[in-house]
Model the fold of this input.
Amino acid sequence: METYLGIDVGSVTTKLAVLDGNDELVTYIYLPTQGKPIEMVQQCLKQIKPQLPEDVNIRGVATTGSARYLAGVIVGADLVKNEITSHAVATLQYVPQVQTIIEIGGQDSKIIIVRDGVVTDFGMNTVCAAGTGSFLDHQALRLNMSIEEFARRALDSNTPVRIAGRCTVFAESDMVHKQQMGHRIEDIIYGLCQALVRNYLNNVGLGKEIKPPIVFQGGVAFNQGIVKALQEELGTEVIVLPHHEVMGAIGAALLVHEGMAGSNNGSQFKGFGVSEVKYHTSSFECKACPNHCEIAQLSVGGQALARWGGRCDLWEGSPTS
Amino acid sequence: MRVGIPHMGNVYVAIKAMSNRFGGELIVPPVNNQRALSLGVRYSPEGLCIPFKLTLGNLIEAAEMGADVLLTIGGFGICRLGYYTKIQEQILHDLGYNVRMIQLNVSEKKLPGFLQVFKQLSNGASWPTIISAFRFGLTKLNAMDRIERVVQKVRAVEQIKGTANGLFARAIKAIDNADDYDSLKKIQIDYIEQLTQVPKDNQAQPLLVGITGEFYVVLEPFSNLDVESELGKLGVEVRRRTFISEWTKFSLFLNPLGIDETARIHKAAFPYLKRDVGGDGWESVGEKVLHAKEYDGLIHLAPFTCMPEIVAQNIMPSTKESIPVLTILCDEQLAKPGMLTRLEAFVDLLERKRRASNNKR
Done:
């Protein structure tokens, strides 16, 4: 069976998606990254292998997400693509007439504007990560409930309270204050959802023409409270696709399929065996100039595979020493 | 009198040339680096822009090296720049550096004022010496900028990425060491020739991306994380209006004669913004309108908290001349991975847009 593998390693979760030759989703996996991107990629590969048919033939691999370069070196990616393009491509596959894509992940949020099937503009949170998944996780933890329960309780709100949503630190103080004043927890949670949506639209969505159909994806799209608040604020329906949390990985797989179709080269995929390899990461300070950049190094058995992190190109590319 | 200067791109090369000619004692602090940035951030009010913080870092490093006079840039425009010399002086005095500030006024845009400043910095050099020194400095600026324009083209199509940058660095060094007009001319011709010889991908049809925004962050690669080189690596040709040699040419020589290159840009911006909003905000809007047909996309560089560029950023989406714009806010928090993600996505967007419009034809 001819398949294409997309790997999306985000700040909070790691996603794998396998598509067949007709771009149909064969299977996918979604696990927390837990700050260990290498181990999680290995773990995901190990877990997805038994879900694939015996005769699986990986024809192309692409990585995306904030750890895309690292993941690309580990698995032997044929394509390393940024998450904005990956998300847009995946959404267009399922909703070809989409005009606006809202994506809120663990630590970033984006808006992608599409017209006539082509991305015309995008925005990504720049100087502030307020209102992304990590903050919601943190608040659920603080209220001693699971993120699922947190989302569900938001829907039971009758009179949501107004929470200051511009800065998460102040949002948290505001929530504590409202709790101490005796407001219902449901109203506070939904108030927070509204605040985060307002913050998203005023920052990431600033100056963007948000037209329907609107597709909402990323991990935060699991949160019914946020979905409801978005629909209320935008005054229109918001589509949440069945596999919205793995759209980045699906997009990467679609892109590598497209890319490999035009070339005769085989995939550089190192195989599922990489889940057994022991990778070693280390870092050092480069002393070549006064900048003293921190260079991160990935190695196997004492052999350096890749280096990152300099302001200049000194350590870029494949190491020579 | 030991004169310290702040950095902006390669300007130090020109000032050094002038100073050598009029016999001044110049202290050039290390080019922008992490330490200068950390010092600047540590002693600056948080809400000030990255140009302030970086130049403050340079001035502190110059003072550490024994400078007792510091040359700064000032003006009386609408942005906060007008206060910067005074604030930096206060901070340096509070830190215990006994330094005197001499300010080049860039709002006045007058040659005699500039020359007067350099006269003050010389050890009593004669007017003819000052004028000839100034001319030599400008010639170095011109040479560097002419080479850089070629570099912007070569970066996009060179087969081995980084070749053009390497040549450019060597050219700057050679220009810095050049002592007379003849060798300057030779260096310029020689390096432009070498750049033309760089092995290139002849099949490539590079995208053309304009760079606009605030003067300092456009010209100081350290502050914009070398956005032009990164675009070059992605196979994009970069074009910009902002060059110091252009600025001096117009501000000091042609504007007094009534020739104003910004008039055209302001006219283009006029339907959307009718007045100067300080800094380069008006020009940013105008450049988008003016080049919407010529460029595939525009990168708008703005210092975080820069009022003029925030005004421009908010007006840009509403112009009917539509061209994709990516605004990058530059400050000490700007990190390379985040910037690269946006640049890659932006280039993908432009590429796919071009493909779609080619298919339509």
